[in-house]
Structure formats: structure tokens, C-alpha cells
Amino acid sequence: MIRHYKDESIKYISKEIVLLIHLFRYSKLEDLTKIQNNYFSRKIGIISHYLCDYTCYPHAYRKTYMGNMREHMLYESELNRYSATHEFEKLEFEMLKVSNDSNLTSIVEEYIEKIVSEYMYSEPSFSNDLNFGFLLAYKITSFIIEAIHSYNEEMSYQFI
């Protein structure tokens, strides 16, 4: 199991994102079988979990070692309660552009780093954790779907 610290898992997550795109690049997402849809959804969930942890105070500031585990769990429990009434702010951040670049993993990694860096400059708060976590997960999920659609369109042009 790979730990949920950005420094230890960002390469793994970036590769998982690109792998998911490549696995489904010639599939129509609306026509997936139940098994394919379950796999795709599970992978998106795992990726989103890691991304949200990158913008969650205990993970971002490494408050998870033995002396702080209780503090970590308490923080996440309070964050969960807070989230029930949280109103998300619309954070502006450019979309990751779909590209056929052979170095896509590095591009994805740099994009994640950029958003996490922006988060680290913000004041630690439940609100920032939720806003940046949602932003990052949303932007990456949108990128995955757009990339798959882009490959799919490319494929259909090849058969015309």
C-alpha cells in the first residue's frame, strides 16, 4: 500500500491517471459494461482519495506519524462534520489540457504539484481543505474523461 503523502505517492497517482486514460482511450464511456464501469469508477475513487488527501491538513503537513495519529483522526472527524454545511467556493484554476505528449505522466504530476502548492500557500482551514480537494479531484477527473473522449474522436476519424 502506498501512503497518502504527496511526496511518496504523486508519481504512482500520476501513472495511475495516465494508465486509466490509456486503458479506456478507445472506449465510449457511455457504453461501458457493468464490470468496466465498476473498474473505472473504483479507479476514479482511489485517485480522488489520494488527491483530496494532498490538500487535507494532516496529510499535507504530515501530521500522521505515531504521536499525532489521534490528532489526525480527530481532525478528519471534525472535517467530516464541517463538510455537511460547507458551501464550496469556486476556485479558478486552469484546466489541464489534453495532449498526445509522450510525457503525459510528468505533465499530470506538474499540474497536481501546482494546485497543491497553491493550497500550501493558503491558510490551513476546513474550508480550504474541502475547496482545494474538490477542485483537484474535479479537474483531474474532468481531464481523464476529456482525454478519453479526445482519443475516441481521434479513433473515429481514422476510420472515415
Automatic annotation (TrEMBL):
Source species, domain of life: Bacteria
Domain Phospholipase C/D intervals: 3-123
Annotated protein name in UniProt: Phospholipase C/D domain-containing protein
Organism placement in taxonomy: Bacteria, Bacillati, Bacillota, Tissierellia, Tissierellales
